[in-house]
Amino acid sequence: MSTFSFLLEGFRNLRTTGTFTRSSPALCRAAIDRIDFPAAKVIVELGAGDGVITKHILERLPADGKVIAFEVSPDLCDDMRALNDPRLIVAQDSAENIRHYLDQIGADKADHIVSAIPFAALPEDLGKSIVRAAKDTLRPGGCYNQVHYSLKTKSYYEDAFGEVETKRVWANLPPAWVLYCMR
Ligand SMILES: C[S@@+](CC[C@H](N)C(=O)[O-])C[C@H]1O[C@@H](n2cnc3c(N)ncnc32)[C@H](O)[C@@H]1O
Question: How many whole angstroms separate alpha carbon 149 and alpha carbon 58?
């Protein structure tokens, strides 16, 4: 999807997209920090958009690894399918259904979860149930990394995971945060 089309998608569905721009390379790198790639078998991505972070994950994922990428916009899912990578499973579905997609590939838990879902723009109940689903399906020792433009919903991750570390990423428009949680 071109930058212009992404901008249009943002205008049409701002309540679910939460932005007009995709993550910068610096933000994508920060979003996948702390992932133990050599050992990763299953990475789950929530709010994958057109796959900008997904591509960074795929670059470092072992050949036998899988990425399950959740996205609710059909157009953005088509962009991810066009990446044409056999390790990528596009879940055109809401992110609280992680369990169902793990079961489909015979995986008990996700090794790591990366999310860019704009929880501040979603109903609180939905946001909290997605974070709960993420915690329940993440293996002990795995990390949950959340990209945000504010710290408004930090308590969602503190309630689910306990301690939350934050990192400011200035090289993004607008400057962003990545919140790091450990299971
Ligand atoms: C801020 S954009 C991030 C896109 C891309 N990952 C990036 O970093 O540029 C958030 C994405 O979350 C998706 N989204 C919103 N609610 C969702 C939900 N309940 N389940 C899955 N994806 C959702 C939106 O459609 C949007 O593409």
Answer: 24
Q: What is the pLDDT of residues 167-177, one digit of tens each?
A: 999 999 999 99
Q: How close is the Cα of 90 to the center of ligand 1, in Å?
A: 13
* Pocket, ligand 1, Cβ cutoff 6 A: 16-19, 22-23, 46-49, 52-53, 70-73, 76, 94-95, 116-118, 147
Q: Report pLDDT for 28.
A: 98
**Tell me: the pLDDT tens digits for 127-143?**
999 999 999 999 999 99
Yes or no: say if 134 and 96 are a contact pair by the CB < 8 Å rule: no
Query: 164 φ, ψ to 5°?
Result: -130, 125
Q: Which domains, and CATH codes, for the chain? A: 3-182 (3.40.50.150)
